[in-house]
Every structure is written in structure tokens, then in C-alpha cells.
Q: What sequence folds into this?
């Protein structure tokens, strides 16, 4: 996947809670960054172009509904399952700096949405062709596709648990 997760959802939460005093300290700067992430998203057009032109991503979705929900959409459409490694998820550093706890940051990353990062698959033979960064935005390997149709798992400390889609539901 591209970029970091949880920032837009944390920004929305701050806005819904009345955007507490932002201040000039580290916490205040982090909160301003999160609110900006929510109010001015940056779609990963450049990454999408690279992945498409180089034919690197047989499956791709933007993370507008939340990683857990969008992963479920991608897996359902592809007839596969997936396992996510919680330790590999690139949590937005501003979420913790703004005062959210690690478990809250993880939930915001999995279920929050509106980060507009890209989640995609890459064939093992194409991994060496995948750039580590495009336009200053890094890519992170966060899990594996499995043959277990519809089964989503979150691996934490070596233990697998079911990953229930908890992001935005359209209908």
C-alpha cells in the first residue's frame, strides 16, 4: 500500500469533537496536520499512473472506506482472502503525536477511511520492479493474499484473528 493510514479519520474525530485547542506545541501541530489530512486529501494519482503503466498491480483499490472494508471489497472481487500484519501497517505518525493511543491509531487505520492511499497486489515475480517511493510517497508491504476466499485475518504478535470489515458502508 502507499503512504500512511489513520490520519484522515483522526482529523475527522478531532473536528467532530470540536477540534480542541491546537496550540503551537508538538501535539497542536500534529492535530493541525490531521485536520488538514481530513479536509484536503491527496489522492495518489502518481502512484496509480506508475502501477498502471508498468502493469504491476493486478488488483488495486483506493482506501476511501477504510483498509478493512476496502480490503474486503478487493478480496471479494478477486475471489481470495488476505492476512494483514498489524506490525507492518504504516500508521500516520501524527495520530500518536496528537495524543491518540496505539490501539486507537490501529483502529483508525483499519476502519477510519478517507486516507485515499492505494491498496494493491503485486505478483511475486514483479516485486523487484516496484519502486520503494514515488513522488515522495513510500510503499509498504502489509500482508499476503491467500487462497481462502473471503477470509480476512489480522496478525498481531504472531497470532491470527479474524478481521471484520469496520469501515464505511454505502448501503
A:
Amino acid at each position: 500500500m502507499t503512504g500512511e493510514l489513520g490520519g484522515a479519520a483522526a482529523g475527522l474525530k478531532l473536528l467532530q469533537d470540536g477540534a480542541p485547542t491546537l496550540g503551537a506545541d508538538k501535539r497542536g501541530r500534529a492535530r493541525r496536520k490531521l485536520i488538514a489530512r481530513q479536509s484536503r486529501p491527496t489522492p495518489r494519482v502518481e502512484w496509480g499512473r506508475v502501477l498502471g503503466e508498468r502493469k504491476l498491480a493486478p488488483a488495486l483499490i483506493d482506501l476511501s472506506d477504510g483498509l478493512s472494508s476496502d480490503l474486503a471489497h478487493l478480496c471479494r472481487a478477486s475471489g481470495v482472502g488476505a492476512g494483514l500484519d498489524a506490525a507492518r501497517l504504516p500508521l500516520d505518525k501524527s495520530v500518536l503525536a496528537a495524543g491518540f493511543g496505539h490501539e486507537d491509531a490501529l483502529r483508525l487505520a483499519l476502519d477510519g477511511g478517507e486516507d485515499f492511499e492505494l491498496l494493491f497486489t503485486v505478483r511475486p515475480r514483479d516485486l523487484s520492479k516496484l519502486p520503494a517511493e514515488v513522488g515522495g510517497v513510500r510503499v509498504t508491504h502489509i500482508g499476503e493474499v491467500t487462497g481462502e476466499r473471503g477470509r480476512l485475518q489480522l496478525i498481531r504478535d504472531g497470532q491470527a484473528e479474524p478481521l471484520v470489515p469496520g469501515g464505511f458502508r454505502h448501503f
